[in-house]
Design goal:
single chain, about 180 residues, mainly alpha, Tetracycline Repressor, domain 2
Length: about 180
């Protein structure tokens, strides 16, 4: 595969190895590029101070973009998904990338809370950690391992994930009956 990649890119194999000393480094480089919009779509929603006033529709746009981007790069994302389970270098890259994203978004949510935009019952970093991993794993499984007849459509998935995210941050109602007494 490396010989074919080098040939198609028009560079000698030896030069190729100067840039990518091993297959893990190649996948990391390609995955960083392929996942850029996957991560930037929700960040644009989080960074827009008007997003909360637009309601769940803004979340749906961000999640829809994430799903489309994941699907458009599914071969790279599948390799990343599979290899991260046994290649420590790839796992460190992908988990590190997700953790950076959680840190950025958690900081934004913390700011929302301090500004009074969301309730004090929300743990900005705890909620964000759970939601980010939920979205990443759900989109991954939806695209890479659909469940046949029981599969939900992209639209159903986007709507459901978006509603969960919206309610996690903006629902000020008691979480269970015991809390409401």
């Amino acid at each position: 595969p490396v010989g074919r990649i080098a040939a198609e890119s028009g560079i000698p194999r030896s030069t190729f190895y100067q840039y990518f000393p091993n297959k893990s480094q190649l996948l990391i480089h390609v995955a960083a590029l392929a996942s850029e919009t996957f991560f930037s779509a929700p960040l644009s929603w989080f960074n827009d101070p008007e997003s909360p006033s637009r309601g769940v529709v803004g979340v749906e746009q961000a999640i829809g973009t994430m799903l489309r981007e994941y699907r458009s790069h599914w071969t790279v994302m599948r390799a990343l998904d599979e290899l991260s389970s046994y290649d420590p270098e790839i796992a460190e890259f992908w988990i590190g990338r997700i953790n950076e994203y959680i840190s950025m978004m958690g900081g934004i949510v913390d700011g929302w809370q301090k500004a009074g935009a969301i309730g004090s019952q929300v743990d900005p970093y705890g909620a964000t950690t759970g939601l980010v991993w939920m979205v990443e794993r759900t989109i991954s499984q939806h695209v890479l391992r659909p469940t046949g007849d029981a599969a939900v459509s992209d639209e159903q998935l986007v709507t459901s994930l978006s509603r969960i995210i919206w309610l996690a941050y903006y629902d000020d109602q008691p979480r269970n009956r015991r809390d409401s007494t």
